[in-house]
Amino acid sequence: MIAANNTRSTNNDPVESSESSPITGAANGSSRLMRQFGSLFQPAAQRNDPAGYVEFGSISEADVHSGRTLGTFAGVFCPVALSMFSALVFIRVGFIVGNAGLYVTLLQFVIAYVILLFTVSSVCAISTNGAVEGGGVYFMISRTLGPEFGGSIGTLFFLANIVGCGLAISGCAEGLIQNFGPTDGGDVGSIPDGRWWRFLYCSSINTVMLLVVLIGAEMFAKTSMMILGVVVVCLLSTYVSFLSMGPMEVAIPVENSLVQNATNKALGNYTGLNMTTLASNLYSHYGQDYTSSGNAVNFAVVFGVLFSGVTGIMAGANMSGELKNPSRSIPSGTLSAVLFTFLCYIALSVLMAATTSTFLLQNNFLFLGPVNLWPTFVTIGILTATFSTGLSNLIGSSRVLEALAKDKVFGSLLNFVVKGTLKNNPIAAVIASWALVEAILLIGSLNTIAQINSVLFMLSYLATNLACLGIEITGAPNFRPTYKYFTWHTAFIGMVGTGVMMFVINPIYASCSVTLCLLLVFALHFFSPASQGAQWGSISQALMFHQVRKYLLMLDSRKDHVKFWRPQMLLLVSSPRSCCPLIHFVNDMKKGGLYVIGHVKVGEFSENDSSNDPTIEEYTQWLSLIDHMKVKAFVELTLSKSVREGIQHLIRISGIGAMKPNTIILGFYDEEQSKDFFEHENSPYKTSEFDDNGIKLFPFRRSGEQKSLLPTDYVQIIDDVLRMKKNICLCRHFHRLDKQMIARSNHIRYIDVWPVNIFEPKNDDPFDVVSQFMMQLACIINMLPVWKRLELRVFLCESDPQPEPSAPFERPAEHRLSLLLKSLRISASIHQIPEWGKDMDVPRHRNILKQFTSQSDSNQVMTEENINRSKLYMQRVNQIIRDKSNATAVTFMYLPAPPKLSTIDYKEKCHHYLDLLTELTYDLPPTILVHGINSVMSTTL
């Protein structure tokens, strides 16, 4: 509980002071400050500070922008536009219009782009709220939601990019086979076809992408700009063809077995601009998908196909590490690319519906080639769009993998990625991504994996919206994005929209992806380095703060009711080294209530003292103690001129609102030898964590050292607690408590309650407030698994002689106690102490003993004879209790109120008060002396 500047503490005297930590010299202090803060004046790349906080120092623009060469158009607009075009623009729009009809197609594009627009708003809000480093979406989510969610979503986003790259490569290979391979089922073609031939083509395309990415991001940017130019030219040729080409018939592919066989050459009509054709394509005509064995097409299938083609909004964010100005480039580049692709898709859908019959749209997904003025342009468009999408996914996956490795999310597993970086280009990450894409290509058919890919992208979008929604709800003052069109409404709609669409696309894959994400969250929570959460900040802490503050304001102490009372403990500890079992025991006794471990450091906070408040440095040590002890407790430290004054501070300031301690727990004031549980060989609390270069943290009073707290001070502390209207418990012999032995031993069988005020015994003691509070605490302990097998015993000590009852009637006091326990729903056995009323001469000693309590008469003077008689009486009572405690785990006893300050010979009475308590509890099991001041039990429903 308490630490003084020049004294030490003891286990069983938690209110006693202990030594403070040695004060280091100026040189040591300076070096420590340099170690702590020197890294802040280094460039971000050198100090590995991905959080991107603004620091004041001599950081030049060259340091900040080292390795960043891309602008908005090359770094964001081109990758996003190409990724959102992919294969959809030339292959799948006809399938969508032919089945869903123009009205539903336009509706689906609006729905998809509204969801994308809200998600882009969240991306823009995060990217304009601070420095964005490499890793794109992973970086944003991890620095917002914390390492567990960030690492799990980042891993899934990495896998999504890998699968997306494999899908794009396969689409590119399909385009090659369609145009240069065997036609009409024959064997003639410029290039051969077959499973392993296709794998060879895919591997070749993948290797070409690898070479482009290895050259660097600048080469990728130049490549993407060139490819986007080619795709736009090819798309313009398609628009021109729709406006200029007249009616014609287009052959249905041989592989379409739904309408075609070997002897029947089916044809579809291309009418050119025609109002009748437009009218026939306005409404839905869901049919069958000839590329998937005739599976039925519906709204969900069509929307899944549409959305899988426009999941490239993060392509620009993935390049955040190479952008000159991510905060400006990501919003403007992404939004402009989204608008551009949306207009292109709308125009393409309308032109298709106005020129092409429903039959042709449903049965030939590559009809754009035959109806184009220059058919080769469509082939080039398909190949370049798919190649650029695969390229974007490959470089995006490598950057996410690099960010995961730098953050050590998976420990040392990805160290090879960090070591394999050359001139800011993650060579090892690129090669690892390339190898995984090769493994995906070995699977062959990727139709099923394509849906998983879409779901994984959707899950990353959902997490991005969730991150922004959480920050906005918490009202964090440091969340001030310069992007002005973001609100919590946009984040909420984006989150709900992406969540719903995940399950619309495929509920099974969506459920599996969410489950995998949660498993990764739990795995990273338990196995990843815990320091990352403190380094980045976690939104969970902000959300908890927001909710806790709200409910604390709603928790009104004026509405407290005894039915819902629970103990809220303040344990005063001098040195935790010597009272580990007590700390654990109080944790068991709190019953889900507030538990605060308090410590007083004796000293003065002088204005002339240039050193910091010593409690600030020690606070982290106490938090580490909480982690080591595995208890659910808070820590409160204070600096005070005296122990007594410090305890008064702690009682007043501990807790907040209606959550304030109502029970104060102190160690007993005695001379027993302390035990260091951190060093004892057989101690379950053994650790070297609190040994700092030979200096033991939390020192305690050794044998022979003088106590810093006088007996009078200790008794005054007890009196202070009661006058502050708090319950109090004094704990003795808890260094003997062994919960492991209690759990496995058949010898330890009881929890004992002695509800009698030894200093002023009466027959109605079992029914007063103190006794009920004592039984309440014993009942709480008896509810826990380790203690549940123990029997609760209540000892009835009748002070005045009672006539023997005629069977089968009970004694009046026993009967009343039995009814009380029954009404309080306490399962306990009642044990009479016959010798108490017969042999103890209680009435005679009652008048003597109350001299040492609050009932003492201020004009009554103690005599040596009365003092000796009282000690002998306590020894006899102690012997009775010891005889009953051979199999007892813990004993609860009645604590009488200490003598009043106004009595004469107060100091002497305090000494004798403590001496009598010492005699009473001598050589007992772990014992708690209890004094309650308020009713804590209810007999009503």
From TrEMBL:
Residues 1-25 are annotated as: Disordered. It is found in: Membrane. Residues 581-671 form the SLC12A transporter C-terminal domain. Residues 82-570 form the Amino acid permease/ SLC12A domain. One of its GO terms (molecular function) is potassium:chloride symporter activity. GO terms for biological process: cell volume homeostasis; chloride ion homeostasis; potassium ion homeostasis. The chain crosses the membrane at residues 73-97, 109-132, 153-176, 196-215, 227-246, 296-317, 338-361, 373-396, 427-446, 452-473, 485-502, 508-527. Keywords: Membrane, Transmembrane, Transmembrane helix, Transport. GO terms for cellular component: membrane. Belongs to the SLC12A transporter family. This is Solute carrier family 12 member 9. The lineage of its organism: Eukaryota, Metazoa, Ecdysozoa, Arthropoda, Hexapoda.
